[in-house]
Design a protein that fits this description.
By secondary structure, this protein is an all-alpha fold. Among the domains are: 2-176, no CATH class; 575-644, no CATH class. Helices cover 75% and strands 0% of the residues. It is built from 29 helices and no strands. The chain has helices at residues 2-21, 36-54, 57-64, 69-98, 107-128, 130-145, 160-167, 178-199, 202-213, 221-236, 239-257, 261-273, 285-293, 297-326, 344-349, 351-365, 370-385, 389-393, 396-429, 431-443, 447-462, 467-484, 489-502, 511-520, 524-534, 536-547, 566-588, 597-610, 615-643. Helix 4 crosses helix 5 (107-128), helix 21 crosses helix 23 (489-502) and helix 23 (489-502) packs antiparallel against helix 26 (536-547). The longest helix is centred in the middle third of the chain and has 34 residues, at 396-429. It is globular, with a radius of gyration of 25 Å. The termini are far apart.
Amino acid sequence: MIRIAAFVVALVIALTGIINSMPTYGFFTPIGPFPAIVLRPIFVGAAVFLVLANSSFTSTFAERWPAHKWLGTVIDVVILLLAWWVLWEYYDLQISEELGGFIDIEMFQFWVSLIAASVFIILSWKIWGAPLSVIGILALVYFYTGEHWPWIFETARVTLPETSEDLWYNQGDGILGTIMGIIIFTVFPFIMLGTMLERTGGGRSLIKLAVHVTKGFRGGPAHSAILASSLFGTMSGGSVTNVVATGVITIPMIKQRGFSPSFAGGVEATASSAGQIMPPIMGAAAFVMSDLTGISYLTIITAALLPALAYYASLFTSVVFEARRLGVEVGSEELDTPELRVTTQDYINLVMVVVPIAVVVFSLLEGLSAAGAGMTAFFAIIPLSFFNPEVRKRPFIIIDALSQAGLTFGRLLMAIAVVGIVVAVLGATGLPKDFVILIEAVSGGNLFLTLLVTGIAALMLGMGMPTLPAYLTIVLILGPAMQNLGLTVLAAHLFVLYYAVASSITPPVAVAAYAAASIADAPPIRTAMMALRVGLVKFAVPFIFAYYPVILIVPVVFPEGQSFAVGDFVSVLFRVLVFIYLISSAVISFDQRRLPVWEAGFRILLAVLVLVTLPGIHWPATVVALAYIAWHQFAFGRKAAAVT
């Protein structure tokens, strides 16, 4: 009964989200958007019910302590009632203020806000694990004890009733504040779009076609995993979701071709996580970034394109070197199964991928909002899904996809609520300004050290979090420090997004790598380390565009007084390609033959020197690198060909 109720509630959330995000089409006037003061508490209240219905404490207690299952049920009921009560208190106070009433904030409101924060921290921990919730707890502790902290972290004394306005009764920086509004009004259409793509067959056909396109490569299925994950991941918006959707097909094939299980899982994990830096959708991160920065979506995806392509080029190259190392040859044995045989229907299903992406871009060019563009693409994919005979036989698939989107959205809102706690504390205490002082003190005003400290902090803060909450948390804390040293707003946000994405493959909490390891039947830590090796360029690309903003192309990334120069662009692009070749071969320790340790180290050193900003260093290093690569190909390439 509860499952049925949860299915219906999730469906209602999806339908409400559709109505809320409908743009104006010609003479059609939409009903929405609904007032935020009403929609936010309703959505969050429904999300709490969905989370408890699908991941209840009752089921947890039944598995671990069957005799105390009743206690789990009590916890579920208490949390649900408390959540609904604090949401009602939020709505009641906001309505009273809108009607012109004066509300005297007292200790009662403080307890309401503290209970609200506690409920969402518990639910986020239940769904997403400890990392984000621990950050939320630390933020609360700092909020109430900041006056006792040393050095730059000391804050003014707070009065408990007043903190409730920052934490809960606030449509700006609170738990139900601006960030929650961005997710509800902007991101939700793209969650529905990604879920619909996965459930109606477009995602699976995309994977099969990727396998077919890359069958002539030695790396075959490993290359198909990279291609499929980049295309599917840009729309799905989740590293683990992408791993599960594509990895169940690609990982067994990679192993069958002769690659090790840990390599199969590592390639899939790092390719899947990077789908969120791949334009045009970027897992909805581009739209959130646009709302936060005020920079247009088209500018953001234009800037993000070349860095993303450079990263995926490094993955392709790493697979080539690994295939050489293992002596893997071109083969088609994994294509013999009926499940992977490409049919005419797969080409037809591809319109469910191509058309929605084209609709998003075209709608934005026509002046629609991000939410309006996403909703227009969603409306396009529904009739297109009926080209798939499976959907025609079972139209209920569409209803099921809508309900699944509602559930996915509800789970995300629990994480965003905890991000709201962090945002409230940051706004009330001015902690980001303190971080600017701290990072400047550590780095001495040096841009490289600032970026390095920021990158390490971003990896630590982002471990175990979904990408969007990780990106939001990190950029709000660390973004001002980078901008203070000359980085433009867009470059700083892209830098943080890259490291938020990279945190999903960084041990010890490499969630995407662990998901891939479970499919590959490989040791989790070894898989994470392999993902880290083949994805090493992901950590370097943000530094490249920080020092060479010309690679981002768009004018908003150039420091004042600078503009796009074709010569500089070609120079940087060429050196980036040399860098990718050197790094990819070094991390695999193979080119035309196995590389000894000193030679791998020499390649890494050359790769770093090639990208140094001083022409007196990078041009000689580039010449040496090209000469060295040519010598290696000439000396050992002929031997390898002779052996073959």
